[in-house]
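Weekly sync notes, structure subgroup
Attendees: PM, AL, DS (notes)

Item 1: joint prediction request from the bench team. They want all two components modeled as one assembly rather than separately. Inputs as received:
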Amino acid sequence: MRSHHDMGGEPAGPVNMAEHDYDPWEKRIDAMFSLLVQEKRLMRVDELRRGIESLEPNAYETLTYYERWIASIGKILVEKGVLDQAEVDARIAEIEQRPDAELEA
Amino acid sequence: MTDHAHLRHGVKDNHYKRLAIAVRELLIEKGVVTEDEIATFMARMDARSPELGARMVARAWVDPEYKKRMLADGSAAAEELGIAVDGTLLVVVENTEDVHNLFVCTLCSCYPRTILGLPPDWYKGREYRSRVINEPRAVLREFGTDIADGIELRVHDSTADMRYLILPQRPAGTEGWSEDRLAKLVTRDSMIGVSLPLRPDQLDQLEHAAE
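Output from the run, pasted for the record:
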């Protein structure tokens, strides 16, 4: 069966030409991933894609581009044993207690 | 963050921002990466823009030998101008009187980032990725680009390890121009293939508008 990310040739509406400048938090995810791939050799680009493709089918509709990226990166790093799911969850819970102002732009 | 952005992103977005912070903090605490290394990669990303690709195109327009090398091995031609390609294979395809090329990544968002910087939103979006391989002429028209029926369209689909760059045709009326001046005609979209390079009169207009 054709997977949801494999959209070449599917019908779709007009191209939306609106562009946005990348936010710092988006760039930070991108930089961290490039570092993991190019210098640390802990991930590969194909793995990022596999992680994104295995998100729920409506991830393309409900998540933004870098939200999909970090969801995939987190999942792959846990899969590889670099991170532990429980410690990631605990850290997110701890970060939730921090004021919103500490979240990055 | 502005109030507007808060409204736009809402709480859901904050979950992924928290995930991003959690992953980064844990990787730093474990000694996998450092804050400085991430900063270095961010600076490297910010330094990459379509100006790099425009330099390659302008060089190819004035130097037939360089153009030959570029079409034979895009990665080496980039490195020849001091532009790093980070291990990806760069394939340069040339537009001619008979063939117009453009590229896409139907499966995700592979893009010649080292040469053009980060991709525009539409490049990553469903509409472009879905439609451009079946109805490239219609998609090009949405970009304001009319390609005559007699000209063959070739759409190239990128992969994680292989990225494309389009070498547009040199616009008429630019005989004797310097490489630097020529590079100003080379837009990002003309190197993706969804637009043509600026004509000299369009560049004049832009420069007047900027004054």
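Discussion: The first helix of chain A runs from residue 24 to 38.
Action: AL to compare against the crosslinking data before next sync.
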